[in-house]
Amino acid sequence: MSVAFRRESDEDHKEPKFEIPMVPGPNLVTARGKALIDARVAELEGAAAQAEGDAREAIQRDLRYWHTRQTTAEIVPVPSPDSIAIGSRVRFRMAGRERCIDIVGHDEADPAADRIAFQAPLAAAMLGAEAGELIDFNGRAEAIEILSVEPTPE
């Protein structure tokens, strides 16, 4: 039989496991975001202690990602109610529809719960704006009207 058809072990033919990619740029987080990262690390450390084999390897991979996020986290100060920043709750009108979002760090983002990462296009367009301003967005002039800005409640 040809060597090409022989298989020494399954280990030789496993797909490589790559590290979870990091979001480029600074790891800016709210106090709530830092607490969520800390909780995730604690949860994964507990799971890793009980897991074995491939399951443990997968958990260790996740744990490396979250340890890095934990050590690089920079907690932003509570923003002023005057202009939009990370940690702001923004009420705005776009395309005739009123919405309210919280601008947060990447690990805290949850679009379904209206928590948007600060580098997301919508949030990035709003950063630095104040209540009453009209902002260009998505190629449209004055597409967003900022109705109110306040720090996100903890």
UniProtKB/TrEMBL annotation:
The keyword Protein biosynthesis applies. One of its GO terms (molecular function) is translation elongation factor activity. It holds the Pfam family GreA_GreB. Coiled coil: none annotated. Keywords: Elongation factor, Protein biosynthesis. Residues 81-150 form the Transcription elongation factor GreA/GreB C-terminal domain. PANTHER family: TRANSCRIPTION ELONGATION FACTOR GREA (PTHR30437), TRANSCRIPTION ELONGATION FACTOR GREB (PTHR30437:SF6). This is GreA/GreB family elongation factor. It comes from Sphingomonas plantiphila. The lineage of its organism: Bacteria, Pseudomonadati, Pseudomonadota, Alphaproteobacteria, Sphingomonadales.
